[in-house]
Write a structure and sequence with these properties.
Blueprint: E1 2-6, H1 11-22, E2 26-31, H2 41-44, E3 48-51, H3 57-63, E4 69-72, H4 79-84, H5 86-107, E5 111-117, H6 142-161, E6 164-170, E7 173-174, H7 183-192, E8 197-200, E9 206-207, E10 210-211, H8 212-221, E11 228-233, E12 239-240, H9 241-251, E13 258-261, H10 280-286, H11 294-305
Parallel strand pairs: 1-2, 1-4, 2-3, 4-5, 5-6, 6-11, 7-10, 8-13
Antiparallel strand pairs: 9-12
Length: about 325
Amino acid sequence: MNVLVTGGAGFIGSHLVERLVNEKHSVTVIDNLLRGNKIPDYIQAQISFIEGDVRDKELVIDAMQGIDVVYHFAAVLGVDVVADYPVETMDVEVIGTRNVIEGIHKHKVKQLLYASTSGIYSHSAIEKTSLSEEVLVDPRTSYAMAKRYNEIYLASHFEEKGVNTVALRFFNVYGERQDNRMVIPRFLEQAAVNLPLTVFGDGRQTRDFTYIEDVIEACIRLLQTTGFHIVNIANEEEWTISRLAEIIIEETSSSSDITYVDAPKKRYDYEVERRIGSSDKLFSLTGFKPSTSLMQGIKSIITHEEYSTDGHNSI
């Protein structure tokens, strides 16, 4: 198929582009390269690359001519960045998605897969209960609110105009090529040089970490899904941040300690106490659930990115 990936030079997008190319799809990428280009060198010559912003209506619509499927992954990411630039965060989400939808209608694109977020659930987690797509959501940040708005907006376009759409609620994706705005690469970089691993709060807050290869497998399996669906992509395992830090120290043979610090005020709405998702709906649609354990995923990152305690890693 002819596939367009917005945000395709980013962490998740670059892994998706690599998989699509390896499966012989024709891939076009739109990315503004503000965070660099994570697409592997051997893939670069096999894709069409458009440097630009998804808020550029003409650029987006023109890029969609002849496209069969769009993965719309362009977004402002990172808690600190989103907290500092809430207006830009919402503009990229809302204007960018509107432009994508206009292009879909003009060029009769068959399917849209949209990167939403588990952050939409916010404080909805109930004790000892995993989050399903039927749980009442509780978005409190500009990022989560914009993602939820787009879910409703895209559902409306399916109801009125039949645009087949899957909104993908990612749960704490991690893996190779992720930068240190996110907790696992930040901990790995600190451990590699024997610095203290800095944990916000008391470390008892939990997350459901989902390995990048499982995420991409889910994204591929959801191709050609008809209708409108909101789908969690979660590993269904709950880990405290303290235990995560301990695992990384163990796996890197680091002499780092763990330091607990107060979270900055601007991070308050992002610092939920629990997050664990259910991938039952994903399984019902595709027969697949993420299965890479946190330990396996961290070992893979260490192997591929050569983290060590000699003060050097390949990032």
